[in-house]
Design goal:
about 230 residues; alpha+beta; Immunoglobulin-like
């Protein structure tokens, strides 16, 4: 799961650093954690506290629906042991339609979370974690009622420009509410993340490869919108 959370490059670099730095010495779990934090730039206190020191696992109850250009995914999480109330994890999805396949990485930040994803097609099927990255149970079902009951989330007040983009993208918020964002490539690999409560936030994308990218915006209620963009 750490490999999925951190990505291949950061995970394997952290493992190499850990083995090199602790060669022919005693090593403890904090040594591994420190090496992975250094390679990834992520704080892993919460991950190790819940997955290593805590007990149990998450169960995801997932429902979805789609229109011609949007996909709505509702995720409800419960845990198997009271020592952990909630597992913060990126969730892997694969969506398919008309012979097309798209991978999604959705950051699950609250127990009951709704994602609204911009698409160029009407989604025909949704798979959750088909390659078994996560230690979890799940159920998934189609629920057309989500289309009419989709919340008027604050994330809907965001615009992202330019699109297509060359060197940067600007996130404009009409509301001024605090939000977080995750920038991912088309395969769901996390590239950048951050937070803001400013009307405009500029993200440098010069180091991104040309092609499709995904930008997930999360409002204070934990609801999310995923915008598809193109890097020139």
């Amino acid at each position: 799961m750490l490999r999925w959370k951190l990505g291949d490059e950061a995970f394997f670099q952290g493992i190499r650093d850990y083995l090199y730095n602790r060669a022919f010495q005693y090593a403890l779990t904090p040594d591994l954690k420190d090496a992975l934090e250094q390679s990834s730039g992520q704080d892993l206190d919460d991950f190790f506290r819940k997955w290593y020191e805590g007990q149990g696992f998450p169960t995801y109850n997932i429902s979805w629906a789609s229109t011609d250009n949007k996909l709505i995914i509702q995720v409800q999480q419960t845990t198997s042991h009271p020592s952990v109330d909630f597992f913060d994890m990126p969730l892997p999805f694969v969506i398919k339609a008309n012979g097309l396949t798209q991978h999604l990485r959705l950051e699950n930040t609250v127990k009951n979370q709704q994602f609204v994803i911009d698409t160029d097609f009407k989604t025909e099927s949704v798979e959750f974690d088909p390659t078994l990255w996560l230690l979890a149970r799940h159920s998934i079902s189609y629920n057309p009622g989500l289309i009419s009951s989709t919340r008027n989330i604050q994330a809907a007040a965001f615009t992202v420009s330019p699109n297509p983009a060359g060197h940067y993208i600007n996130i404009h918020s009409d509301t001024g509410f605090f939000y977080t964002y995750q920038l991912m490539d088309a395969g769901g690999k996390l590239l950048k993340s951050g937070s803001s409560e400013q009307p405009d936030t500029v993200i440098d994308i010069q180091d991104l490869r040309s092609g499709v990218f995904l930008l997930q915006l999360n409002d204070e209620s934990g609801n999310s919108k995923v915008i598809r963009g193109i890097k020139l």
